[in-house]
Extracellular solute-binding protein (Paenibacillus hemerocallicola), 566 residues
Amino acid sequence: MLEKLVKAVLPAALAVAALTGCKEEASPPRPVTGLAGAPGKFDPPVVISTAKALRNDDKLKDGDTTEDNPISRWARDRLGIIQTNKWIVTDQNDALTTRIKLALSGGEELPDVLFLTDAQIPGLLPDLVASGSIMDIAEAFEAYAPARVKEAYEKNPSVWRSVMLNGKRWGLPQISDGKVGDPILWVRQDWLDRLGLKPPATLDELETVLDAFANGDPDGNGKRDTIGLALAGKRYLNDWIGDASFLFGAYGDQPYQWNRTKDGTLAYGSIQPGVKFALARLSEWYAKGYLDPDFGTHDEQKASSLFASGAAGVISGPGWMGGWPLSDASGTLPGAVFKPIPYPTGPDGKIGRIGSKLSYGSYFFRKGFDRMDAAFLYWDAVYGSLIEDPASDFAYGYAEGYDYILKDGELVYDFPGATSTISKHLLFGPGSAPPNVMPGESIERRVLQGHIRSPYEKKLASTASRLFLEGRLVGDIQLEHSRKNEFVGPHPPTMSAKGPLLAKLEREAFLKIVYGKAPADSFDEFVKQWRENGGDAITEEVNRWDLENGRVASAAEKLASGVTLR
Ligand SMILES: [Ca+2]
């Protein structure tokens, strides 16, 4: 769902997850063209097979097919690389995972290249490694990755951790911008204005606002029919829209994830003392009517619609919400003014929120595949468009007629039938512009300030709403307060066995406190239960993984980025 929404609201570059598939063919003699910076083309062409998971809405135009389309023609004509689809599956019910498991159990050879999402990797990586069917790519990366690609990884070394097992690098991770899902606070500015309130800068001021939004008839219809904060409590309290991470952060911790502590180890956030205080505060808010009575059954869609429909005056969620759903909602709620603001500070001046993943998926290579030179040529060509390389073949977009057209010599992005899903046909989608790589101001800031000259700036200006850009910029203000889940490895045995039960225990314990059905002190009993029922063993497993797979690089990267450890 996240993937789908992200695709709907973000520039395609942020959501590229190309899955293509191919037939096996004998490798032609290896040419030396194409790397070391010189634009090259393989002749004879290199054939690379892959697997593609497609959705019904990934439609091609004008007789194009999955084997023959603008992307495949570009790769063949410009790079001398021919993609073939060894497997094509429908992108539902995790069909690709099923297909891979079938291949592994039957001893069937994998496609040359496989893309797996961050959700699929933890379950599949141990099996893939154990089967001996994928290769450690460390050597090929050193030998063939172009300088600017190496730079992206050197500046974000912890991204390797999602593909590491036994200290080896089993895949090539996409690198996200590291902040796309970082939440901010969205408030109804027109409600604040009507009630004579300022945007809240502290948690206490936020509480005043929530009280006024719940009790002060902010929509002026004479009825007590609004709430303060829209919260999604169905799965857990830090979901990707309608999260409470700012409240946990104000008390110094993030539950539901593994956080780096001052002694360098990883600790599970949900059992830390600060969480108890945040739950107690949330319980007060619930008792005072600031939350929806049924928030514990609301998913992120429901929470989002409460805010977008004018029933709630505050929600926490990503900056891109300024595109969907808020730009659409502006048209249906007359007078509504949505405003993105940074999070207020907690009692001790603390601010904190959940942080986006650094990687949303990775590419894995068949053991014995020996055309990593071609793979990196392709990777680099797409990567150029992510870092706004003016010389990129994709500077205008991915394919004329799909995501852009040229009309009287001008680039046009807003036309009937415009779609960015053509990018799914790429053999490789390296992710987004990685953190720490792009100099100067963000493209969102440039476009918002009216600096719209390059094709990349024109594209963003034409496809993003002003509120989207503003939301993204507010997200950037508190980057140092984002906390990423530091555990990104395969699920170790106790986590696999006990994790679901512990998550249930955690969900029930937290909701009981917030609903006022159990005192805040029952948190201590939850911690005891969690630790005794597998939690302590999982903590050991997670720290073993951390030690064996790059703890040093990860801790150094955190310090270098200005993050203070708890
Ligand atoms: Ca009202």
